[in-house]
Write a structure and sequence with these properties.
two-stranded antiparallel sheet; globular; 22 helices; mainly alpha; 2 strands; MetI-like fold; MetI-like_sf; transmembrane helix; Iron ABC transporter permease; MetI-like; cell inner membrane; 2 domains
């Protein structure tokens, strides 16, 4: 009897501990995400202190608003289609075939995704500018340039997400179909693709989300001619102070994000035959793999060309080769800033370190909460709701978040506008969904019987955590830290609003340099972008070395 009472008491204590643990990230996200975004929407929907939805409806009926929304939808759709078409063959080659340098190629294709969007836009522009290698195509200042930038930025999402699923597929069904006379295309269409469909559609949904909320890419490549929902929110907020219009577009964007997150969540819930398989060994390339290899090489070249154009441009001055732009990094860029560009890089690194430990600590708690085994239907619904809640920062406008910080966190007890922690907190929220999506598959894959066995042998909760969970999760934790660091290092949307003038981050400095004409400013921006890209690439190479096979999809 006492044993039963003790067991019931232990379960009650465990439930209370779980609730308390879940409340910590809920409180943090509420204060530093829901409150700022809500303040931004409140300022727009209650402009005179009373609810006025008519103003928002008037905004949505504007011809320009319709053009902005349509431009966002169609460019995101085209970019997603192209990214999937290029990413599928590359996912097969990089996750199913074995060849020298595979990890280096995989890391190289991953780098654009974590590059600052300002750097991505600048690299593509250097490639297609009139003086660039592809300048003869006349793409500079066109919608095609924006689509190229979006594909360049997001193809890694398809490669990683689909590749992880493909890496875990059992080869035997495909081999059986081939033995019965099916062609490679028939095998892919009837056996492989049905098993990969959840991963493919999930990747496409995430890519569409990233394309629709891209900021720096459209800002740099679109100029004054093209505007997406994200850049329009920035224009309405920062330049025109038209908060009802910004609030209306933010509402449209958030509704679309929530819908996409629900779709992606349902796709992750689909029974996937790969998750119970062991990781299949990579095979040597065969003749039938030639088309996929050709597409992969073309994708690698397409990713390398903008980066090479960026590097070449940073060394060009007055028709010759020079390192003057790199020497200028130690100066203050013709007095545009209170600090040198090199000092801005140091500030970016310090802020990224703070944002990394914040997002990692919060992400570990979130991952534990959303992977806890629950038996009741209500418990599973609560867990799914929490998972979606913590993913909201993934798609809500970083511009909305940054401006919301200025509105909501400027009065006691949350007067943080002058706090040095404000920028790291904003960047940690941006990195949080990627940290969670990196850790959740690993924690979910731990067999709960191992924890039960440790507990039956007398191990307490802390000892069980150290001996069971930590032994499995330490490498993904380091990989998640690398992703968070790289994403934080390049964050631009929210940071551009809240960064202190005396301590600007490097992406903000690069954008401001581009806004001031002059060959030295432009060249210095290119040199700073190369340095930032090099640091990011080094981090991603380390992350790829830490990746656990079969994990790491977003």
């Amino acid at each position: 009897m006492s044993t039963a009472v003790g067991g019931a008491s232990g379960r009650t204590t465990g439930r209370i501990a779980y609730v308390v643990l879940a409340l910590v990230p809920v409180a943090v996200v509420t204060v530093f995400f829901v409150l700022p975004v809500g303040a931004m929407l409140h300022r727009g929907l209650w402009p005179e202190g009373r609810f006025d939805p008519g103003a928002v409806l008037d905004v949505l009926r504007r011809p320009r608003t319709g053009r902005v929304v349509w431009f966002t939808v169609w460019t995101s759709t085209v970019a997603t289609t192209v990214a999937v078409a290029l990413g599928l063959p590359a996912a097969y080659v990089l996750h199913r075939l074995r060849f020298p340098g595979r990890s280096v190629v995989r890391a190289a294709l991953l780098v654009p995704f974590v590059l600052p969007t300002v750097v991505v836009g600048l690299a593509v522009r250097e490639l297609i500018a009139p003086a660039g290698v592809l300048g003869f195509l006349g793409l500079d200042g066109t919608a095609v340039a924006i689509i190229i930038g979006l594909v360049f930025f997001n193809v890694a999402v398809v490669i990683r997400t689909v590749g992880v699923a493909w890496e875990s597929l059992d080869r035997r069904p495909a081999e059986a179909a081939a033995a019965l006379g099916a062609t490679p295309w028939q095998v892919f269409r009837t056996v492989t693709f049905p098993a990969l469909r959840p991963a493919v559609v999930s990747a496409a949904s995430v890519v569409f989300l990233f394309c629709a909320t891209a900021f720096g890419v459209v800002l740099i490549l679109g100029g004054v001619r093209y505007s997406s929902v994200e850049t329009e929110i920035y224009l309405l907020t920062a330049d025109l102070l038209d908060l009802p219009a910004a609030a209306a577009l933010s509402l449209v964007q958030m509704l679309a994000v929530v819908l996409l997150l629900v779709v992606v969540g349902r796709l992750r819930a689909v029974a996937d035959p790969t998750v119970r398989r062991s990781v299949a060994p990579a095979a040597r390339p065969q003749r039938r793999d030639a088309p996929a290899i050709v597409v992969t090489v073309a994708t690698l070249a397409a990713v390398a060309l903008p980066v090479l154009a960026l590097v070449a441009g940073s060394f060009r001055r007055d028709g010759g080769w020079s390192v003057d732009h790199y020497r200028a990094l130690g100066g203050s860029a013709d007095g545009l800033f209170q600090v040198s560009v090199a000092e801005a890089l140091g500030a970016s690194l310090r802020i990224a370190v703070d944002a990394t430990w914040m997002s990692l600590l919060l992400g570990l708690v979130v991952a534990f909460v959303v992977t806890r085994r629950v038996r009741s239907r209500a418990g599973r619904r609560v867990r799914a709701a929490l998972d979606g809640f913590f993913m909201l920062p993934l798609g809500v406008s970083a511009v909305t978040l940054g401006f919301g910080f200025l509105i909501a966190l400027d009065e006691p007890p949350l007067d943080l506008r002058s706090s040095p922690l404000l920028v790291p907190i904003a960047q940690a929220l941006v990195a949080l969904p990627i940290v969670v999506r990196t850790l959740v598959p690993v924690l979910a894959g731990i067999d709960d019987r191992q924890r039960q066995a440790a507990a039956s042998l007398g191990a307490g909760p802390l000892r069980t955590l150290l001996t069971v969970d930590l032994a499995v999760v330490w490498r993904p934790v380091l990989a998640a830290a690398g992703f968070a660091f790289a994403v934080s290092l390049g964050e631009f949307g929210a940071t551009s609003f809240i960064v202190r003038p005396a301590e600007p981050t490097l992406p903000v400095v690069i954008y401001r340099l581009l806004g001031h004409p002059g060959p030295l400013n432009h060249g210095t921006a290119l040199a700073a972008s190369v340095v930032l890209a090099a640091v990011t690439a080094a981090v991603i190479l380390v992350v790829e070395r830490l990746r656990v096979p079969g994990t790491g999809a977003w």
